[in-house]
Amino acid sequence: MHFEVKALHPRDGIVLRSLEAANANDTRTRLSADGLEVISIRQRWRYAVSLTRQAAFDVLLFSHELRSLLDAGLSIIEALGALARKEQIPGRRAVIDSLIRELREGKPFSMAVNARAGIFPPLYVALISASERTGGLSEALRRFIVYREQMDAVRERVKAAAIYPALLIGVGGLVIVFLMTYVVPRFSRIYEDFGRDLPWMSKLLMQWGTLVQDHGAALVLGVILLVVLTRWAFKQQNAALRLWRTLTSRSALRNHYQAFVLARFYRTLGMLVQSGISIVGALELARVLLDRERQIAMDTAITRIRAGSALSISLEESGLAPAVASDLLKVGEKSGDIGEKMIRIADFLDDETSRWIEWFVKLFEPLLMLSIGLFIALIVVLLYLPIFELAGTLQ
C-alpha cells in the first residue's frame, strides 16, 4: 500500500514522505528508525497516484523557501540540500538535485539556473547574475518575489473582474441552447397542425425547430467541427495575432492595453536597474515583454541611448514613455534614483488600468445581463405569440 506521511524531523522541521509499506504500523516503524516523529499517515491508492498529474516547478515558492534558509544562515548548497530533502515530487527534487550537483562542480548559481531556461525565466537568471557581483543573493530573491507577487496581483484583478461576466455568458448561453434545441422543436410539432398563419418571426423560429428536429445529428457534427476549426485557428500565431490587433484597434482599448503592457515593462526595468544591471542591459532584457511593434521602437531607443541620448528623451521619442512616465524619468535622471521612478511609473499605470477595468465591468455586467434577458424573453414571447393570438380570436 502507498502512504503519505507528515512527520517532524529534528533538523528540517515538518517534512512530507511518500512510501510503500505493508500497513500503517510498518510505515510508522520505518520512519521512526530514520529519526522522524510521525504526525499523520494517509493512505492513497495506487491508481490515484498514477493518475495524478505532476505539478510544474514553482519558482516563486522555491525562491521564498530558498531566501528563508539563506537568511537563517545556511549556505546556498546547504539550503538547496534542505529543500531537496523536503521535496516529495520526484520532478521537482530532480531539478534541485541538479542545481546542487552543478554548484558542487564549481559552477556559479546563475549558470546553473540559466541551464534550465524552461524552468527559470530570463529575468530570474539576470537577477541572480547581478547578485553574484554584489554578493546579495537573498536581496535578489526578495526583488523577484516582490515582482512576481505584484504581477500575480494584477492578473488576479483581471481574472476576478472576468469571473462574473463569464458566469453570466455561460449560464445564459446554456439556457438559450436549451430553448433552441429542446423547447422550440417541440413547439414546432404543436404548431404544424395549427391551421393558421403564424407571425413571421414565430414562423422563422418554428422553421428552426423543424430543422433541429429533422437534422439534429448533422447540426451537432457541424458545431463540433466549427469548434475544432476555431480552436485550430487560434493556435495559429498569425491568426491569433490578427484577431488581437483587430480587438485592440479601437483607440480606447488600445490605450488601456498599452498602459498594461508598459506597466509590466517598467516594473521589470526598474527591478533590473535596482539590482545593479546597466540601463542598456535592462532594456535588452525587458524588451521581450513588448509586442513586435514596440520591440522595434525599443531597438531604436537603445541605439539612441548608446549614441549618448538621455533615457527619458529616447523612450519618449520612440513612443514608449507616456507624459507622466517621461516626467518621472527626467526627475529620476536628475536625482539618480531612476530605478525607483520606474517602479512608480508601473504603479501609476497599474492603478490607471485597474480603475478602467472596474469602470468597464460596472458598465458591462448590467448590459450583458439585460441583453441575455431580452434575448431569452424574445424567444419565449415568439413561442407563445400564436397562442395569445388564438386566445384573442376566441374572445
Task: Give structural notes.
This protein is mostly helical and 395 residues long. The chain folds into two domains: 2-51, Ubiquitin-like (UB roll); 143-395, Type II secretion system (T2SS), domain F (Receptor-associated Protein), CATH 1.20.81. It is 76% helix and 6% strand. It has 17 helices and three strands. The chain has a three-stranded antiparallel β-sheet. Strand 1 (2-9) and strand 2 (13-20) form a beta hairpin. Helix 8 (137-192) packs parallel to helix 17. The model is unreliable at 46-54 (pLDDT under 50).
Distance between the termini: 77 Å
CATH homolog superfamily of the largest domain? Type II secretion system (T2SS), domain F
Described by the principal axes of the CA atoms, the overall outline is flat
Question: Helix- and strand-based class?
Answer: mainly alpha
Q: Strands across the major sheet, in which order?
A: 2-1-3
The tally of helices reads 17
Tell me the radius of gyration. Answer: 30 Å
The tally of strands reads 3
SSE succession = EEHEHHHHHHHHHHHHHHHH
- Percent helix among the residues? over 70%
Which labels suit this protein?
17 helices; 395 residues; Receptor-associated Protein; three-stranded antiparallel sheet; mainly alpha; Ubiquitin-like (UB roll); 6% strand; flat
Structure at a glance:
This protein is mainly alpha-helical. The protein has helices spanning 24-33, 46-51, 59-71, 76-86, 90-104, 109-114, 122-134, 137-192, 200-214, 216-235, 237-247, 251-274, 279-286, 292-306, 311-317, 323-335, 338-394, and strands spanning 2-9, 13-20, 37-44.
